[in-house]
Design brief:
The chain is an alpha/beta fold and about 300 residues long. The chain is built from 11 helices and 14 strands. The chain has helices at about 20-35, 40-45, 65-75, 105-135, 155-165, 180-190, 195-205, 225, 240-250, 270, 285, and strands at about 10, 15, 50-60, 60-65, 80-85, 90-95, 100-105, 145, 180, 215, 235, 255-260, 280, 295-300.
Amino acid sequence: MTEPTVIEHTRTNTGPTLPQAPVRDILERAFAEDAPAGDITSQVLIPAQARATAVLNARVPGVFSGATVFRDAMQLVDPATEVDLLVQDGQAFDAGTHLARVSGTARSVLLAERVALNLVQRMSAIATRTAEFVRLAEGTQAQITDTRKTTPGLRILERFAVRCGGGANHRYSLSDAVLAKDNHLAVMTGGDPAKLTGLLLAAKAQLGHTTHFEVEVDRMDQIEPVLAAGVDTIMLDNFSLDELRAGVAQVAGRARVEASGNVNLGTVAAIAATGVDVISIGALTHTVAALDLGLDVELTVG
């Protein structure tokens, strides 16, 4: 069995960046799905020599994500298409802001339009939602992170968008870290909590020293047996606020404390105030609605 490929996000002085190869693969698959034999509408309606300039407009305020994805989508269809990115990834914008301008053959712009918009609308929605959670957790030590509840095939884009919104990424895949959840513990212990520490210690002994080990608990009485195994992070799942505060006090720095479950815009500030280190939120990626961005033709020349 070959080792899994872990895709790392990088950050430059201007913000997070995306690796080109996996993005190109996503775009190629998207265009193969959307235009397997070209765009017959434009082919019969638009002269081959017609050119168009179009503007990516924000119809609502938000945080931008997917600038280079939008550019690459346009230029994958036609490398000669000119794309001027007017707003950078991670930058907040108001309604009415021009985010990018595109110039090229009209057929190319129209063929690329939907794929480019679909991706940038979803990515910007995720960045905007993440920024809301991050703002509500300000003044605490809690870091807002995503989960693996992402759209299959689009994880690298969606998790990049979380970073554009000021959040952080949890483990990228099942291959990256150990995270023992309730079902793992149920199978391991057979319902006998007395076995938990020993089994976790045996599991930890199989790991290299760089592999992160996290365990999820859903009851207060599980905390001490898990900590006794020397785990790196303990996840308190669906704990009440009082239980979170008590759990943080009980852990007392022996491991990082992650809160998960029942996290929304109405609860995140109070959860962050309990002293947890991490708040993981599936809703950053799995329930967002596309942000209202539009590509409007500004000028056509026959």
